[in-house]
Amino acid sequence: MKPAQKPAPKKLFAAVATAIALAGMSFSNPLQAGAKPEKEDLKFGFIKLTDMAPLAVAAEKGFFEEEGLFVQLEAQANWKVLLDRVINGELDGAHMLAGQPLGAAIGFGTKGDVITAFSMDLNGNAITVSNDIWKQMKPNIPLDGGKPAHPIKADALKPVVEKYKAEGKPFNLGMVFPVSTHNYELRYWLAAGGIKPGYYAPPQETTGQIAADALLSVTPPPQMPATLEAGTIYGYCVGEPWNQQAVAKGIGVPVITDYEIWKNNPEKVFGVSKDWSDKYPNTHKAVVKALIRAAMWLDAENNKNRKEAIEMLSQKQYVGADVEVLAASMNGTFEYEKGDKRPAADFNIFFRNNATYPYYSDAIWYLTQMRRWGQINEYKPDGWYLETAKKVYRPDIYQAAAKELIAEGKAKASDFPSDNDTGIKPPQADFIDGIVYDANKPNDYLTKFPIGLKGKQTVSGGKVVD
């Protein structure tokens, strides 16, 4: 362990100011303003994706160290290994799929008490299909100025899937993990176009392929392009840089971004075990402070720091992709069909629009999709969704970190939601199918989908049972 540095008078003054600012506030963790981290040497895991950027930036720009933390970042083989290592204590925390802490809470897959006090980004994913599937889809897509009109709906893919089905061929698609945003976004897009993505029936049936028109299976993100090129899958949903990599290699065409499926959707979170957070509350708060500063840096002054961030991420120990491939999405553009590069200013958001705040309503949306596809294979009352969200998402820890940054002059109060924020966003309508999501009425929301479980329905014996 590195010796703690003697705090400078300026830092002591900041600590006193912070203590005054936080006086009278109470949190479920025994957080103390200006208190030293209980644990200084930390190891965090991540998967090689663009949206691990806040971790890399916090390390490279010294934000962790300024919070008294000495952090080692370590790439992990896949999402399951990453989650298991956080739960068993081999990792202090990790870049996680937003659905992972929730999946662990409900016992789908690995069971464990994992919490998040920090959302890492908004948007950042896309759906890519092989060149052959694109060629078959293209006649079904309307044109705008001689180019395909966006957003491209799954309606254009439906005749292709039906053709494969009629010929007795499985239509295979890849996503990164059963509780990933990618799984739910791909399913949402397919179902909005009338293509059934299949159901789960845990604990016996966890492939999610019951009554499916398209068969979705897991492929680790960095392996997506090679798996597509080999013909094992016909398309996939993944984060960057693995969609732009398909364009660069000339093996596939991204057809839609997740921003076009659900505008400003939450993507990754930073997760730790509840036991770890309870044991090291001030360490956890310090980590969140450093990550907030990294996110602010990534979005500062119209993304002026993105070039530096791209060069940082291109290093082998982080994402290890070519600068050109990373820049294709991180610099405010996105390339679909080769040569068809379009503006996409919000493809990656790290801090704007309260991107880092852990909203209960985001957690509830994920839980509705788990219910919709049978990962939660029984009816749950509306109150259960909020109760479960509150066990996993921890805005109290986030607010404590934010208030210290404000008191230290490193952020402004206007950068964050207000103290009395409920954690529930107003109803959202920016979905590709136009269906409005109201987090206060999860069961009512589920009834609006033509495809998916609703009410008291369950999956049993390979079919949906009322």
Report on this model:
With 466 residues, the protein is of the alpha+beta class. The chain has a 5-stranded mixed β-sheet, sandwiched between helices. The protein has a 5-stranded mixed β-sheet with strand order 12-9-13-6-14, sandwiched between helices. The longest helix is centred in the middle third of the chain and has 23 residues, at 281-303. The chain is built from 19 helices and 20 strands.
Return the average pLDDT rounded to an integer.
Answer: 92
User: What composes the largest sheet?
Assistant: 5 strands, mixed
| Number of H- or I-type helical stretches | 19
| Shape, per Cα inertia axes | globular
Amount of beta strand: 15-25%
State the helical fraction: 25-40%
Biggest sheet, strands in spatial order?
Answer: 2-1-3-15-4
Radius of gyration: 22 Å
**C-alpha end-to-end distance:** 58 Å
Task: Compile the SSE list and pairings.
Blueprint (H helix, E strand, L loop, with lengths): L8 H14 L18 E6 L6 H8 L2 H4 L3 E6 L3 H9 L5 E5 L1 H8 L7 E6 L2 E2 L1 E6 H7 L5 E2 L2 E2 L9 H9 L5 E4 L5 H12 L6 E3 L3 E6 L4 E4 L5 H6 L5 E5 L2 H8 L2 E6 H4 L6 E6 H6 L1 H23 L2 H8 L9 H8 L2 E3 L5 E3 L4 E2 L10 H13 L9 H11 L2 H13 L34 H6 L10 E3 L2 E3 L1
Parallel strand pairs: 1-2, 1-3, 9-12, 9-13
Antiparallel strand pairs: 3-15, 4-15, 5-18, 6-13, 6-14, 7-8, 10-11, 16-17, 19-20
